[in-house]
Specification:
With 546 residues, this protein is of the alpha/beta class. The chain contains 24 helices and 14 strands. The protein has 4 domains: 91 residues, Glutaredoxin (3-Layer(aba) Sandwich); 203 residues, 3-Layer(aba) Sandwich (Rossmann fold), CATH 3.40.50.11540; 82 residues, Ubiquitin-like (UB roll); 107 residues, Up-down Bundle (de novo design (two linked rop proteins)), CATH 1.20.1440.230. The longest helix is centred in the C-terminal third of the chain and has 18 residues. It is globular and about 80 Å long.
Length: 546
């Protein structure tokens, strides 16, 4: 394929488009609520009403408002409907001619839609993710073509100038990571896309893989050219079957179109991509554990250095970025680094996708500029709590993050601001809580998760998370003493400071953040001193905390 072919496909797709479309979400959330049957009935209703020559019913990616799923939108009039069932199909088709849809209408002008800035999710809810032609018509692979007309070091410089930081959680400068791998001696190098999204309540990467698989592939190909790699792997957990299916379809389509494999855009560049399916181990989100799993080994982390950029997959230089990071790259290369750098804050550029869940009215996916406050996301886009209660706290960053109290909701969402109040950006999970939630119980839930997911390689994490869970259980059951609380705090710091990888190092964060802002809830659970009795055996052996 050459650039003329790319343009012909785009023009042909636009020419073949019907004058109106009925777009039905076919991502995992809406599928679970019956959207496949809804789409089938919509297609049948279009034909039954003799509208097949001018109306198309198509499956699209997630429009974002998951709490209203299945969601159906009509184009170009912009009407949207939620909680759609197959029985609503005839009504929605008749609504194109002024009839009554019968389904619940969604206001397209509400803040949930108008206050987002979609870069990664620009085509979500608009195109069929299973058709490469639809992606090309939306500007897809144009960035890769432009990249191949330039030198690799220029691409690395553009990514650096954009200010993009890794969206997997740590926020490491993407351009610096690319430059490190690019400077390694010539030879075999690898690109790995980390799709092992495991935070409770997080589904941003899953949605991107389901809704924009070609966008992920294009970002990986650009990265491979920039660093001198010819082989890529996408690591996806087995719990994401639809993402795996659509990624494999996209790989097959791109390879057939000459956009993967040898001679991409009739240049010397070649790049192959394979999918590796993980077994759902949370620790495999850590890059060295992920590398071990890709190699067929047990997914356990190893000490660093050496870092993967120097010695990664099969001891070769390896670039690892997460799904959202790669999916951001094509837009940067199409529009230029200055365009991207103008969005966000001084140190956190661009946009970030969040999965907004918990006690919130508008649950789903939102993409907003960095620097947007937590209050704007929760109260404006999210619509506040579902039952109108006051927001008590917002948990960001999954098991590695912290709980931010309502008094700090005006905190901007960027890496440094969240870290300063004891939380992290993480991969983008955001769970809203109200007064019915008890913070020690929230902390215990996340500690149980971390204890279950610990790989067991290092003692601080393997033993410490279990002991922390035990202490939190004593607190929740009102059996703990002041000594137990002191031990809990001491052990949190020990686990954080001595664990091998990020799982153990961040596992105490939910505990420490809730202790920081909701200490009264912990105090209220302690036994009165006059009733406290020393136990025969300390809940935490002295050898662990000494």
């Amino acid at each position: 394929m050459d650039h003329d072919d790319l343009q012909r496909i785009a023009e042909g797709e636009r020419a073949a488009a019907k004058s109106a479309e009925i777009r039905c979400c076919t991502s995992s959330g809406c599928r679970a609520s019956g959207s496949k049957e809804v789409l089938s009935r919509l297609k049948a209703a279009v034909e039954a009403n003799g509208l097949g020559d001018r109306v198309a019913a198509v499956g699209v990616g997630c429009p974002g408002l998951c709490s209203a799923g299945p969601v159906v939108q009509t184009h170009p009039d912009g009407a949207a409907f939620g909680k759609v069932t197959a029985d609503h199909a005839d009504g929605i088709v008749s609504a194109l001619s002024g009839g009554s849809a019968g389904a619940v209408r969604i206001d397209p002008h509400q803040p949930f839609f108008t206050k987002q800035l979609r870069i990664v999710r620009a085509t979500a809810g608009q195109i069929d993710p299973e058709r490469i032609e639809a992606y090309i018509a939306a500007g897809g692979y144009e960035g890769l073509y432009r990249v191949l007309q330039r030198r690799p070091d220029e691409i690395v410089a553009d990514v650096t100038a954009s200010g993009l930081r890794g969206r997997g959680g740590a926020g490491y400068p993407t351009g610096l990571k690319w430059a490190t791998v690019a400077k390694m001696p010539p030879g075999q190098k690898y690109v790995i896309c980390n799709g092992d999204e495991g935070d409770p309540g997080a589904f941003m990467d899953r949605s991107v893989m389901e809704d924009a698989p070609h966008q992920v592939l294009e970002g990986m190909a650009i990265a491979a050219y920039a660093i001198g790699a010819n082989q890529g792997y996408i690591y996806v957990r087995a719990e994401y079957p639809l993402a795996i299916e659509r990624l494999q379809t996209a790989i097959t389509q791109a390879r057939k179109a000459g956009l993967l494999g040898r001679g991409v855009f009739q240049t010397p560049f070649e790049f192959e991509v394979e999918i590796r399916i993980g077994a759902g181990a949370f620790v495999c989100g850590e890059e060295t554990a992920l590398i071990a799993s890709v190699q067929g080994l047990r997914g356990t982390p190893r000490p660093r250095p050496p870092y993967p950029a120097e010695s990664g997959l099969w001891d070769r230089p390896t670039l690892i970025n997460n799904v959202e990071t790669f999916a951001t790259i094509p837009a940067i290369l199409r529009n230029g680094p200055a365009w991207f750098a103008a969005i966000g804050t001084a140190t956190s550029k661009g946009t970030k996708i969040f999965s907004l869940t918990g006690k919130v009215k508008n649950a789903g996916l939102v993409e907003v500029p960095m620097g947007t406050t937590l209050r704007e996301v929760v109260e404006q886009l999210g619509g506040g709590t579902a039952d109108g209660k006051a927001v008590k706290a917002v948990q960001t960053g999954g098991p590695s993050g912290g709980c931010v109290p309502a008094s700090l909701l005006d905190t901007p969402i960027d890496y440094e601001s969240l870290a300063s109040i004891g939380s992290i950006m993480g991969s983008g999970g955001m769970i809203v809580m109200d007064d019915a939630d008890r913070m020690p119980e929230v902390a215990r839930f996340f500690m149980e998760f971390c204890a279950d997911e610990s790989c067991g390689k290092c003692v601080p994490c393997r033993v410490g998370t279990v002991q922390l869970h035990g202490l939190l259980t004593k607190l929740v059951e009102k059996r703990a003493t002041r000594h137990d609380l002191d031990t809990l705090i001491e052990l949190c710091h020990l686990v954080r400071d001595t664990s091998l990888c990020g799982l153990g190092q961040s596992a105490p964060n939910p505990v420490l953040s809730t202790l920081r802002y909701f200490a009264g809830e912990y105090e209220a659970l302690l036994q009165p001193e006059e009733f406290a009795r020393p136990t025969r055996r300390s809940a935490v052996p002295l050898t662990v905390i000494s």
